[in-house]
Write a structure and sequence with these properties.
The protein has four helices and no strands. It is mainly α. Helix 3 runs antiparallel to helix 4.
């Protein structure tokens, strides 16, 4: 059942060399025919090559030309929800800290019985800052 198979095949023979041996006469005949045609009609072959090149140029510039400008796909800025949420939390925390400091300062100035020019200027600046800080958060409330 398990018998060693022996072969008389030359180990230097390959599939390519065997196919080449088998089909060599056909390729030689076709090559000689093409060579004879090229020697008999060189001007015709040259003219056909020039016509093919010109036809190719004409087709490239007319038929195969892209139709208008390609549509521009808007670039989508992908934002990872985790980092965006974390950034928003950090911004909200900083704004809250600033708001608390400003409110303390406004409260301390407003408790005075009489205000000086510098107190009035600081109070106006702090109120403007509070309004500026609270504006983005008011817009976020109305969006949701």
């Amino acid at each position: 059942m398990f018998k060693k198979i022996t072969s008389n095949r030359d180990p230097r023979d390959t599939v390519y060399s065997e196919i080449k041996k088998e089909f060599r006469p056909y390729f030689n005949k076709a090559g000689q025919g093409l060579k004879g045609t090229a020697e008999r009609y060189p001007k015709f072959l040259f003219a056909m090559m020039v016509i093919n090149i010109m036809l190719s140029i004409i087709l490239c510039l007319t038929v195969f030309r892209p139709k208008g400008e390609p549509k521009k796909v808007p670039l989508i800025h992908q934002v990872t929800p985790v980092s965006t949420g974390f950034d928003q939390i950090m911004q909200a925390g900083a704004a809250l800290r600033q708001t608390i400091l400003l409110k303390k300062q406004v409260d301390s100035i407003s408790k005075k019985k009489s205000l000086t020019k510098t107190d009035s200027a600081v109070l106006l600046k702090d109120l403007d800052s509070l309004q500026y800080i609270s504006t983005p958060f008011n817009l976020l409330k109305h969006e949701h």
